[in-house]
Design a protein that fits this description.
The chain is of the alpha/beta class. The chain has helices at residues 2-16, 52-62, 75-84, 89-98, 101-104, 118-127, 160-167, 195-200, 223-244, 265-290; strands at 21-22, 28-29, 37-43, 69-73, 107-110, 113-115, 140-146, 151-155, 177-179, 182-186, 203-209, 248-250. Strands 1, 2, 3, 4, 7, 8, 9, 10, 11 and 12 form a ten-stranded mixed beta sheet that branches. A two-stranded antiparallel ribbon has the order 5-6. The longest helix has 26 residues, at 265-290. It is globular and about 50 Å long. The N and C termini lie far apart (74 Å).
C-alpha cells in the first residue's frame, strides 16, 4: 500500500512539472491550395544537424538565388521560418552564433516528455518580426504529424514559435502539442524532408536539403543508440519516395559527435555551404530550365 502511494505521488509530481502545450491557433491541415511558384526549398529535419541549413542559405545568397516558397520539418522548420521572415543570411548567422542549448531546450521532469518546448517557441518569436506565418513575405509550410488521424499535416498560419515547436516535437523527448483535440508531434515521422509541402505551396521545382538520411552511421550497440538508429532508419525509409521526387537533393557531409554537437556550429554550417557549392551547377541549370 505504501509503495503504491509513493509511486502515485511521484507520478503526480512528475506530471506537474511540465505545462501543457495547447496551441489551437495553428492552421494544421492535411493539404492546401496554393498559387504557382517557380522555386521551393525543402529544409529537412535532423536535430543539431540543422545548422547545416545556414550554410545552404549562405551559398545560395552568394549566388543571388532565393526561393519563392519554403517548407521545413523539425530542425528544418527553424531555418524555413527565419528565412521566410525576410532575415538576411548575416542576421541569421548572428542569431545562431548567440543561441545556446539552454535558450531553446527547457528540460522538465515529466511523464509526458523531457523537454517542454516553450523555450524554442519563445526564441523563434524573439527572432522574427511577424506574429503569424501567413503574414511573412515568403509563403511557408511546416509539417507536423497528427497522432490522432495518423497523417502529415501542414501548418501555414498561426504563431511562428508555436508552429516551429510543433514541427520539432520529437516523440518521447518533447512534451506533445495539443491542437483542437488532436495530438501533434514531429513532422519527420512521415516527412523527413518536406518536398511534398513545397509542392503544395505551388513550387514547380524543389531543392531538397537532406541532413539526416544519406549518411546514417553504424550505431553503437546500446539501448539508446540502437533505438535512435532504428527510428532514423524507419523515418528515412518512409520518406524515401518523397525525397526522390525533388529536382535536386543537397546532401551535406557532416554527422555530429554526440553531446558536443551544439558546439560544432561552424563545422555544420561549412558542410552545408560546401555541399551547396558542389550542387550549384545543377541548381543554375535547373533555374535556367525553369526560366
Amino acid at each position: 500500500m505504501l509503495r503504491s502511494s509513493i509511486v502515485t505521488l511521484i507520478t503526480l509530481l512528475l506530471m506537474a512539472c511540465s505545462s501543457p502545450n495547447v496551441y489551437n491557433d495553428l492552421n494544421a491541415i492535411p493539404s492546401t491550395e496554393a498559387h504557382e511558384h517557380d522555386l521551393g526549398i525543402a529544409f529537412g529535419g535532423g536535430g543539431v544537424r540543422g545548422f547545416m541549413h545556414l550554410g545552404v542559405i549562405k551559398a545560395l545568397a552568394e549566388e543571388g538565388i532565393a526561393p519563392d516558397v519554403v517548407s521545413g520539418t523539425s530542425a528544418g522548420s527553424i531555418a524555413a521560418t527565419l528565412y521566410a521572415s525576410g532575415m538576411s543570411y548575416e542576421e541569421m548567422e548572428t542569431s545562431i552564433e548567440k543561441v545556446g542549448m539552454s535558450d531553446i531546450a527547457d528540460f522538465v521532469f515529466s511523464s509526458k516528455g523531457l523537454v517542454n518546448g516553450k523555450n524554442l517557441s519563445e526564441w523563434i518569436n524573439s527572432q522574427v518580426a511577424y506574429d503569424d506565418l501567413s503574414d511573412m513575405p515568403m509563403p511557408i509550410a511546416l509539417t507536423a504529424t497528427n497522432m490522432t488521424s495518423r497523417e502529415t499535416v501542414l501548418i501555414r498560419s498561426g504563431n511562428p514559435g508555436h508552429a516551429v515547436q510543433t514541427s520539432s516535437t520529437i516523440p518521447g523527448a518533447f512534451v506533445p502539442v495539443e491542437h483542437q483535440g488532436d495530438i501533434l508531434v514531429d513532422g519527420g515521422i512521415f516527412s523527413v524532408v518536406p518536398v511534398y509541402a513545397a509542392k503544395e505551396l505551388g513550387a514547380n521545382k524543389v531543392i531538397a536539403v537532406d541532413i539526416y538520411c544519406h549518411n546514417q552511421p553504424k550505431p553503437e550497440v546500446s539501448v539508446s543508440k540502437i533505438t535512435l538508429a532504428a527510428f532514423r532508419m524507419q523515418s528515412c525509409r518512409l520518406s524515401e519516395q518523397e525525397l526522390n521526387s525533388a529536382d535536386i537533393v543537397i546532401r551535406p557531409n557532416y554527422e555530429p559527435s554526440g553531446s558536443a554537437a551544439f558546439d560544432e556550429k561552424e563545422q555544420a554550417i561549412q558542410a552545408g555551404y560546401l555541399a551547396t557549392k558542389e550542387a550549384m551547377p545543377q541548381i543554375k541549370a535547373l533555374l535556367e530550365l525553369n526560366g
